[in-house]
Structure formats: C-alpha cells, structure tokens
Amino acid sequence: MRKHALGLLAIRKIAFRWAELAEAEYGMRCVYQEGRAADELFFTGAGVQGHLVATRSKLEIKVELGILLRAFKSSIEQEMVKNIDALLPAKLSK
User: Fold this and answer.
1) Quick check: pTM over 0.90?
2) pLDDT, tens digit, for every residue of 30-73?
3) pLDDT tens digits for 76-94?
4) CA 82 distance to own-chain centroid
5) For 15, which of 35, 43, 54, 61 could close a Cys bridge (C-beta 3.0–4.6 Å)?
C-alpha cells in the first residue's frame, strides 16, 4: 500500500497507466472501474489475479497467485511494487 496526497484524479491516471503497462508487458486482462470515492482495477493473467484500489489518499494492490507461481511470490511482488513506484512521484515511492 502507498499513501499519497495526490487526490483521486491524479492517482486515477497513475492506476490507469499501471493497468496499461500490465496489459502490454504481462498480457494481463484489466477491467478498470471509476468510482466517486475510489477506483477499482481487476486484473487477471496466466496464474495471477488481483485487485487494485485507488482512493484520494492511498493506492493498494492485492494479488493471488496460482500454484505454479507461488514459488516466485517474492520476485513477482517486488516487480509489481517497482512498477507502481516508477509511476508515482519520487517522494511517495519510498
């Protein structure tokens, strides 16, 4: 989870960009739903599914891995965090 003070419109752009990258780089299928207080992104791919929630003050991602990918959990988590952090302003990514 990353806390931020960007507001919903700014974090929405970041979350949507992350979805585009997940689709292009990892072949994920992403469904993005904008809301009044929070946006939700549901994603699925080969052996992975998850949910990203973007609100005015936080960005949170939850991922479930299939049995074949569980051995790579740590490196998959690191890659996802790295990709999100790369989209956030530098002062928020720590």
Assistant:
1) no
2) 999 999 999 999 999 999 999 999 999 999 999 999 999 999 99
3) 888 988 999 899 887 665 5
4) 10
5) 54
In sequence order, the β-bridge partners of residue 55 are 38
Side chain identity at residue 20, one-letter code: E
- Beta strand 29-33 with 48-55 is unpaired
Whole-Å CA distances, 92 to 27, 30, 33, 49, 59: 27, 24, 24, 25, 11
Q: What is the token pair recorded at 60?
A: 């949170």
Coil vs helix vs strand at 19 = helix
Tokens 């052996």, residue?
A: 47
Specify whether the CB–CB gap between 7 and 58 falls below 8 A. no
Supply 21's token pair: 């990258």
